[in-house]
Amino acid sequence: MSGGDGADEVVGVSLPQSQHPAAERGAHHPDHDPRLDAELAAVVTGARRRALRDGDRQVDTAHLLHTLLESDPEVRDVFDGPHVARLLGYLVQRAIGYGLRWQGSVEDSGAVPLLTESDGWSPAAAAALDAAHGRAIRLGRPFARGVDLLAAVVADPTSRAVEVLGRAGVDAAAMAARLEEAAVQERAARCAADGDGGRRAGTGFDGPR
Question: What average pLDDT does the segment 199-209 reach?
């Protein structure tokens, strides 16, 4: 998609890959994806800055996971306390340790072919942002939140974020199942509330006063 000034959106564009760092390539994109709430939009911006600072070619799911853990209390609440500290301690070593083997490679996702990757974003990260919005819509919310992005990230067993989780002792598959169960409960509660509102509107009864 393109805005009035010809700038491309951050997510969902198919552009050729550049050799410049991810955040530099994304400099012409708006910081706010309209599908995300304000908090998640700030996470996305932070992940892009982290990729630029580390000299990475693309923002990947590990960048997203790192910024989610730092910025989103709802996401941190999904984890056991010790896991959060262990994960953050591991993630900060990326630029000097395990992340070096990722430099020069692309984090692929079966959901997005390599030839259609979004500029500045790994295919897996772009797919996760799409899936996060899809989850929010399925739950009756117009904007994706951080927990929606976490659910999308852990649902891809081949993502770098899932690899990091495993190294920190987090069972990503079990977390994905818990997040899906939470989504089912959220959807059921919303449907019940909507149904109750419909019955009240139909009878003119607003409940006890």
Answer: 42
